[in-house]
Amino acid sequence: MNANDINQIYNLLKVSSANVNGYVSDFYTKEKLVDETQNIEIPVTKDIPVNEAPEKDISMNESSTKDLSKIDELKGKIEKCTRCPLARERINVICGAGIETPEVLIICEIPTVNEVIENKPLNSREGILLEKMIGAIGLNKDTNSYITTAIKCRTQNVKIDYAQYDSCSAFLYAQIQILKPKMILCLGQMSYQKLVDNPQNIDTIHGQLLSYNNIPLIATYSPSSLLQNEELKKPAWEDLKTFKKHLDSIK
Question: What's the maximum distance between 2 C-alpha atoms anywhere in the chain?
Answer without folding.
Answer: 73
